[in-house]
Design brief:
Length: 192
């Protein structure tokens, strides 16, 4: 009988150790799953930063090609280039300051603080960039209307300009919403 109890105890111990190993394996699997789930919004943030930097880099030569091809004043090219370089430097600075490359490496408190700081920066950057954007669009319209004079194309230029401006506003708003949604999803992941 004692031998049976000893065998049962050994069997229970073996079952317990097997269950413990399965639980540890499941915990590791769950952790990898949650890390992967968190990485999607984090990758969306990183992709947004990369896209923003890439657009800034592409804007510099594009604006100069446009200025040269259309005989626009160099001052316009200088101002747009300056605005682009400031945006590039600010995005790069906040990316490095907050350590966005290693966003998920820290503890929950650090990650949520970083995401919140970046979301605040993104909101402020959009608000600040409205002024140069409005000035640039206004200048473009004034310059185009001055070049056209009183021709029949004047109303067409105005209509196309308004349509493109509205399209740009809608695209920017949708990008902003997608970006803040990724930030919110990531914050929600860490609050759980």
């Amino acid at each position: 009988m004692e031998r049976n109890m000893g065998q049962e105890l050994e069997a229970l111990k073996a079952d317990y150790n097997a269950l413990k190993a399965q639980m540890q394996q499941q915990e590791q699997l769950n952790e990898r799953f949650f890390q992967a789930a968190r990485r999607r919004p984090a990758q969306a943030l990183s992709r947004e930063i990369r896209n923003r930097l890439m657009l800034d880099v592409l804007t510099l030569p594009t604006i100069w090609v446009i200025c040269i091809a259309t005989h626009w004043p160099p001052l316009f090219g200088v101002l747009v280039s300056l605005w682009t370089m400031i945006d590039f430097a600010a995005t790069l600075w906040i990316n490095r300051k907050l350590g966005m490359e290693h966003l998920l490496d820290g503890d929950t408190r650090t990650v949520t603080r970083t995401i919140t700081s970046y979301r605040r920066f993104y909101r402020r950057a959009l608000a600040i960039s409205l002024l140069p954007c409005i000035a640039m669009i206004t200048y473009i319209f004034i310059e185009l209307l001055a070049r056209v004079g009183d021709s029949a194309n004047r109303n067409l230029i105005i209509a196309i300009g308004i349509a493109y401006t509205l399209a740009a506003i809608i695209i920017t708003w949708l990008q902003y919403r997608r970006h803040t949604k990724a930030c919110d999803e990531l914050l929600d992941e860490f609050e759980e």
